[in-house]
């Protein structure tokens, strides 16, 4: 899942991004509304975590732009105000969910995951294919009943491949969904991660390399 965090309190923004990355999400961060509009125009995001009171361009206007463009991106709006009227107004603008500050990080993560599931064709909470079971909420992976311990990026790559339901996923698509924009697209990070993932999943190999196209399970 790819997420954009838009928050002018830089310490909070960076803390949220770090936490979501530990949950195997690809996260970009900006600190004002103008930068958010720029990123949205370039990258496809599953979820935007959007502070309402932003400098340069207000969060309401960023949300309206996402709705106006007809993007499948889901918006989780944040605000320091807990007033019901503010929450209602944010939802009427086009936000998909609303979370007042301060918030528990576990709740933020759960809401982001729930919104991310709504950006694509609904799939069961636990993904299963080729003897592999992956639970995105519990961050657990099993192969033929054996638990497999994965690093966050390995987990993210496996989730993308399982969600493709047998379709080929290119290295570029894996970079877009599992890494943030600071990753050099010319590195071999995808190939190395897939190699490590294959080894951890064990024999026989379930991740197939399709020459010139990408990978599939």
What are the main properties of this structure?
transcription regulation; OmpR/PhoB-type_DNA-bd; 20% strand; 8 helices; alpha/beta; transcription; transcription cis-regulatory region binding; 217 residues; 5-stranded parallel sheet
How would you summarize this macromolecular structure in one to three sentences?
The chain is an alpha/beta fold and 217 residues long. It has helices at 10-22, 33-42, 59-68, 84-93, 105-117, 152-163, 171-178, 189-201, and strands spanning 2-6, 26-30, 47-51, 74-79, 97-100, 127-129, 132-135, 140-143, 146-147, 208-210, 214-216. Helix 2 runs parallel beside helix 3 (59-68) and helix 6 crosses helix 8 (189-201).
Calculate the terminal CA-CA distance, rounded to whole Å.
Answer: 18 Å
Identify low-pLDDT runs. none
Question: What is the beta-strand fraction?
Answer: 15-25%
Structural class: alpha/beta
Q: Tell me the series of helices and strands, N- to C-terminal.
A: EHEHEHEHEHEEEEHHHEE
Strand line-up of the largest beta sheet: 2-1-3-4-5
Rg over CA atoms, rounded to whole Å, is 18 Å
Helix content: 40-55%
Largest sheet: 5 strands, parallel
Discrete helix count: 8
Q: Care to count the β-strands? A: 11
Shape call: elongated
Report mean pLDDT, rounded to a whole number. 88
DNA-binding region: 124-217
Modified residues (4-aspartylphosphate): 51
GO cellular component, one term: protein-DNA complex
Keywords: DNA-binding, Phosphoprotein, Transcription, Transcription regulation, Two-component regulatory system
């Amino acid at each position: 899942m790819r997420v954009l965090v838009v928050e002018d309190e830089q310490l909070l923004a960076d803390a949220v991004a770090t936490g979501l990355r530990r949950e195997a999400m690809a996260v970009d961060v900006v600190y004002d509304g103008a930068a958010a509009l720029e990123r949205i125009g370039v990258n496809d995001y599953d979820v935007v975590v959007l502070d309402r009171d932003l400098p340069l361009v207000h969060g309401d206007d960023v949300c309206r732009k996402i709705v106006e463009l007809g993007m499948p991106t889901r918006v989780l709006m944040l605000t320091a105000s807990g007033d019901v009227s503010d929450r209602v107004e944010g939802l009427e603008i086009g936000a998909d969910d609303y979370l007042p500050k301060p918030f528990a990080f576990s709740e933020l993560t759960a809401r982001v995951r729930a919104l991310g599931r709504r950006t694509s064709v609904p799939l069961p909470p636990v993904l299963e294919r080729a003897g592999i079971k992956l639970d995105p909420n519990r961050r657990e992976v099993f192969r033929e009943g054996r638990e497999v311990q994965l690093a966050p990026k390995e987990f993210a790559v496996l989730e993308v491949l399982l969600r493709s339901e047998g379709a080929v996923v290119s290295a570029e698509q894996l970079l877009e969904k599992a890494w943030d924009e600071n990753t050099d697209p010319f590195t071999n990070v995808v190939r190395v991660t897939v190699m490590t993932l294959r080894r951890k999943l064990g024999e026989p190999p379930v991740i197939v390399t399709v020459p010139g196209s990408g990978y599939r399970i």
